[in-house]
## 1
Amino acid sequence: MESQPSTVPNPPLQHIAFILDGNGRWAKQRNLIRTEGHKAGAKRVQEIVKYAFQQHNIPYITLYAFSTENWSRSKMEVHAIFQIMKHFLKERRPALIKNKIRLKTIGDITRLPKSLQKLLNEVIEETAGFTHHTLCIALNYGAREEIMHAIRSLPKGRNVTEWKDIEPYLYTAGIPDPDLIVRTSGEQRLSNFLLLQAAYSEFYFTPTYWPDFDEKALDKALDDYAHRTRRFGGS
């Protein structure tokens, strides 16, 4: 008798990742400069992260905040994005510590402005001992660049035969793969984000621009995820 394919019940959601898309278009729709869209996006980050941690108790959240491709934008816009990031970190620093949220980054942050690097490293060090919730920000991140970095970091002569041989050399070492990746603004692609880690992730695409992605929108995404059956290639 032929055996029936088995499915794996969804484990609790451990890690949700967001591709924060649509800030510029949100601003254009309102006849505002693009910087205002990024400011609105940062405010939304604050609200969604707080809600996801406190109401849904999701252990890991990753935000795709600045990609290696984003350097092609105007110098003025790039500078504005980094200034907004600095303001966000300074403002949220006490809350991260109070609520015991660990901050991590993925990507090569050495290209970022020195003042932003300093602030990031300070908050990362201050929150390093927290383990219940982790906020991971992808800055100057690109998955292809991450893979090349991992290959260059391998010890000379290292024999790579399994995933576990290369995983410790990725930027995301020690962070579980995302269960769910949410992309806003209607685009339906990964855009060089967590290409290896997303091997068995579920995807949720919404036309909503990031600054409009509120708590109800997150609830809707999580409800959609909860009604899926993850098979991990087993059936």
## 2
Amino acid sequence: MTPVSIHLTVNGREHILASEPCRTLLSLLREDLGLTSVKEGCGQGDCGACVVILDGQAVNACLVFAAQAEGASILTVEGLAQDGALHPLQARFIERWAFQCGYCTPGMLMSCYALLQHNPDPDEEQIRDAIAGNLCRCTSYQGVVDAVQAAAADLRAGKPPAGAAP
């Protein structure tokens, strides 16, 4: 197959990459851009390990062809922290032990981030619904719910990210 040129913005940086048309966005992000937070779990959209934000929406990168991301803006977990300061979600995930092995954590964070972008004050049911496509075998989802609620409160209060200068 003839490679296609793909222009996209990932974590605020513009890229022009050549890719096979049928290659996944997951593969492009991991292999070409070195963004290893985007994990391949199932390869068929069932586990949520590869969730990224594509033009404001949480998507499973394993189900998106790289060519479909032409002109898109993509955010991965590597883009959440700003100037060395963790995003409130990241800080609260750590504080509330919302993970154990960490394999699912980047996808879980991105699903939660997408939720908070659309709903700054989610209740437990809304959080559980937002992470329904993210599977974790190590920990309970209650830690995730607690972390998201705490991060949402931080964001609503305008609390600076963890590690930010006062």
## 3
Amino acid sequence: MSETVLQAPAPDPTAIDRIRLAILDDHEVLLDSLSSWITSNAPDFDLVLSASTWLQLVHSDNFPTDLVFIDFQLREPVSIEARVRTCRAAGAKVIVLSSLDTRESRERALAAGAAAFLSKSLPMREVMDAARTVMGLELGPSYQRDWRPPPVGVTAQARPKLSAGEVQAFTLYVSGLSTPEVAERMNVQYETAKTYLRRVREKYAKANRPASKKAELIRRAAEDGYLA
């Protein structure tokens, strides 16, 4: 099978810089679906490479890109660590997408240098908003409420004062752990971890910086320096 290289349109000098994106997934139906959605709904990304094998990706003239979406489970005998580290060494950031949403898979991907580990069950709008956060872009139309004028006396970037427990739970959660895993890592009860995260969301909401969804919470973490 051959890679699909998408021809980029002629550059518009008045347009903002677009993020050059590549996708690696050996499920071709899903690969086509992801490519079509991004091309139609994410104009701030330039999908220049869609590959179904690892060699197709790294041997493409369009590699490296700014960002690569990589499927965690490929049939090829190339570990996720090797794939992520190769992309990072080439200068690309990596988001790992997987239907295998386990603690071990997340920890392997993140330890190798992936910027995020996302479940394939997430809506594509949330996946792309997480990609915008990783790349330092403003969020898409579904999150425009983030940019409404703040109330008098509250700045858009007001940083809530979090307790030590809230900071630890917040940091672990946005790094890819689930709430039960946060509780286990902190050695506290599930309800305690859940309370820490609820308080973090409430404090950001009071600062007029919504964080009710995980993609929004990741953005808050990036803005305030909680992401490593």
